[in-house]
Amino acid sequence: MAAAQHNEGYELNLSEYWQIIVRRRWIIIFCALSMGFFSGFLTWAKQPPAIYTSSSAIKIESSVNVADLLLRGGSRQSYSDVKTQLAMIESYAVMERVAQRMNLIPPELSSEEIRANPDYMDEVLSIKDSISVYQDQVSGIITISATSTRPLFARDLAQAVADEFKEFNVQDKNRRIFEAKKFIQQQLIIVRKRLKKAEEQIRDYRNKHNLSFSSADPELMARIISDLEQEYRQATAHLGDLKFAIKPLKQRINNGDWDYQAVTIAGSVSNYFDQLNKRLVDMALKRTELMTNYTDDHPQIKELREQAHDILSSMVDELIKQIELTQRRISDIQKSIEKTKHRFQGVPEQALELQRMQRTVRINEELFDLLEKKYQEVLIKEAEKVQAVSLVRPAMIPVFRINPVNPVQSGLAGMILGLVLGLIVSLILEAMDSSVGTIEEVESFLDTSVVGFVPQLDHDEAIELFSGVKELKTSGHHLERQIRLISHFSPPSTISEAYRSLRTNLLFSQTGGHKVILVTSSTVKEGKSTIAANLAVVLAQQGGRILLIDADMRKPMQHHTFGLKRDPGLSECLLGQYHWQDVVKRFSDVMLGDMGIDQALLTPGLDQLEILTCGIVNANPPDLLAAPMMDTILKEVREEYDMVIIDMPPLLHTTDATILASKVDGVLLVYHIGSVVRGALKRVKTNIEAVGGHVLGIILNGVRGELSPDYATYKMNRYYAYAYGNDEQIRGNIFEQWIAKMKRRSLRLWQAVKTRFDKE
Q1: DSSP 8-state class, residue 578
Q2: Residue 417, helix vs strand vs coil
Q3: Number of helical (H) and strand (E) elements in the chain, helices listed first
Q4: Residue 38: exposed, middle, or buried by beta-carbon count in 10 A (0-12, 13-18, 19+)?
Q5: What is the DSSP string of 661-705?
Q6: C-alpha distances in angstroms, 495 versus 328, 393, 483, 631?
Q7: Among candidate residues 319, 283, 285, 289, the one with its CA nearest the CA of residue 303
Q8: Which residues contact 174 (CB under 8 A, 6 or more apart)?
Q9: Half-sphere exposure (CA, 13 Å, Cβ side) for 404?
């Protein structure tokens, strides 16, 4: 049933997710507990200082006059005014007063001295950062909140801001009254001195010139001349006002459009002009009423516009007329002044000087009386003292902190986050896990058996394995050959035993009819050439006559493995240039090759193995393999040898193996753990079966204890890690082996880090 499920395609379902969770349960539990513990502990250990907040509430009453209300359209307080008040509460000026009130800054210092001291400035800015102000949109109440780590300080700060802003607002609202009072007091002193000095000058002047005669005529003369001069100044000023008003009025007429404004002129022009101005105002009101129902193009609106234009023209004419009358009047006044001066030429000069001095005294008396009156008015306004800010709610001592810390809640949240993190880590580890799972899972998924698995042999482990044998090398291409032919160079090793297990499983799984076996893989670098070579060696070591054919004409490796010449070989035989028996490499060729006699004779059985190398690589290997000559060769070698092992290219990249899959007795599929996804492995098996081939089984290569549960369960990664031996010896060397492995890993890590830094 499991096989039927996997045949539908490898897709994770809920049961497989649950299996992952069960398999990685300790990771999930560890992540949850560690995250929960550290979240709760860090929340408790790193909790911030307790912060308290206290607030006071104030209400700002708007005090405006009727003119302000008309300008604001009836609204007592606009939105911009509210924002201004909120900004003023948080302003530097108020914060400076609050700092002095709370004795954070000496109260006797001036604002300039505070700003010149960085420490005092820090105190003011710190208070400003602790204050927040907002307004309730419904009631309009302004709330002042103060935040501090000390409850009493927060209460005092909120109350101090409210009180200081109240005083600041009073001073700001009555600033003009205070300034006017100060100015009037200064002017009273100056005018009083001036009046006293003028009176003393009259007294001294009379005594000096003995002016005891009647001063009726000189005084009358001086009064007449003074009145005429005053009248002349008024007429001149009125003339200037008329000329100043007529110019913009003409511009309004020339613009051709009525701007609906009345004409304002300092002083009175004439009754007729006032009537015209009143008519203009009435027409403006009437036009406002009509504009609610009509547009500018309505006849009544046009008629009003024409009437207004006529009225403006009449007003210009009236102004011109008044200018002419005023000019004539000025001329008459000038003539009257000259006649009066001429009439009183006989008056003594002392009397005229006395009259001028008396006029100065009179002017100072009038100015002094005016200042006295204004001073009394200022005193009355000062007594009223407009207070627009009132305290609604005083600040209270806060009891609860605004930043409570809950380690239990943080721990629970951390555990939930740890569960999620553990699940994610488990899924990532499962996705990164290069193992194929258990052998049963592989067999169920591919619907075939696993005939063997070959442990992973690292480079450092190979050096340690071969270091105890004199005939073997631990570096260079010799080491690579020894790793590839480990079943020949190190028969007692665990990996050699794995190849012998593969041989046993292969022989016992067949009934004697599987003589020609094809070895291939899904992709490159899965070790199919190495497995083919070692399988041929262990079969030869058993005494059978074995032929190893290197049919991988794309990347041939067998001639390198056994130290032989590549050509002539299979390709020349397929082209008809040689007979295959003439080019087969035998044991003598191996001894005379790169391997040498000593290494060739290191293990018995290699003399039973013969090798047919690939020859010269042809440009079109599939055509050569599909030639009739290949069928002839397979037929002949089947009769000649006990077993034939054919090394073929990977199936995902070439079609070479599929050409011979139906011509051989069986196919061994090599799968290096982590090389390809399971779907690709399934596709390769399906392709072999589609062309009529028979998959004998799967060979797992590169198996490690931490990657394959079966490998670890069977304990093949422990006592038989390198070679056979008695239990006491091996167990005694476990600690030394572990230390040596740690040293090698540390050295590799250091070299990798050093290489990376050198590149950077």
Answers
A1: S
A2: helix
A3: 32, 11
A4: middle
A5: HTTSSEEEEEEETTSS-HHHHHHHHHHHHHTT--EEEEEEEEE-T
A6: 136, 88, 10, 34
A7: 283
A8: 382, 385, 386
A9: 5
Q: What three-state secondary structure class fits 65? A: coil
What is the per-residue burial (b if ≥16 Cβ within 10 Å, else e) of 624-649? bbbeebbeebbeebeeebebbbbbbb
Locus of tokens 């067998």? 558
DSSP strands (E only) in 140-216: 142-148
Burial 4-35 (b: 16+ CB within 10 A, else e): eebeeeeeeeeeeeeebbeebeebbeebbbeb
What is the DSSP secondary structure assignment for residue 263, as one 8-state letter?
-
Which is nearest to 95 in space by CA: 115, 75, 80? 115
Residue 507 pLDDT greater than 90, yes or no: no
Residue 65 pLDDT > 80: no
Question: Tokens 């070479």 label which residue?
Answer: 656
**DSSP secondary structure of 497-561:** HHHHHHHHHHHHHS-S---EEEEEESSSSSSHHHHHHHHHHHHHHTT--EEEEE---SS--HHHH
Q: What's the rounded Cα separation, in Å, for the pair 660 and 669?
A: 14
Cα–Cα distance, 30 to 422 (Å, whole number): 8
Six token digits for residue 105: 């800054």
- Reading the block at residue 96, the tokens are 């400076």
Length in residues, the chain: 760
CB-based contact 592:539 (threshold 8 Å): no
pLDDT digits (tens, 9 = 90+) for 280-303: 778 877 877 777 777 777 888 778
pTM above 0.90, yes or no: no
Q: Look-up: residue for tokens 């599909």?
A: 626
* 3-class DSSP assignment, residue 576: coil
DSSP 608: G
Grouping H, G, I as helix, E, B as strand and the rest as coil, residue 148 is strand
The pLDDT-based confidence of 340 (bands split at 50, 70, 90) is: confident
Which stretches of 256-270 are DSSP H helices? none
Q: Is 47 helix (H, G, I), strand (E, B) or coil?
A: coil
Looking at per-residue confidence, does 63 or 71 come out higher? Answer: 63
Task: Report the C-alpha gap between 702 and 455 in whole angstroms.
Answer: 5
* CB of 647 closer than 8 Å to CB of 554: no
What would the 3-class secondary structure string for 432-501 be?
HCCCCCCHHHHHHHHCCCEEEEEECCCHHHHHHHHCCCCCCCCCHHHHHHHHHCHHHHCCCCHHHHHHHH
How far CA 293 is from CA of 279, 282, 301, in Å, comes to 22, 18, 11
Cis, bond preceding 568 (omega within 30 deg of 0): yes
CA 742 to chain centre: 43
The DSSP bridge partners found for residue 519 are 647, 668
Q: Which of 37-41, 255-259, 479-483, 515-519 is most confident?
A: 515-519
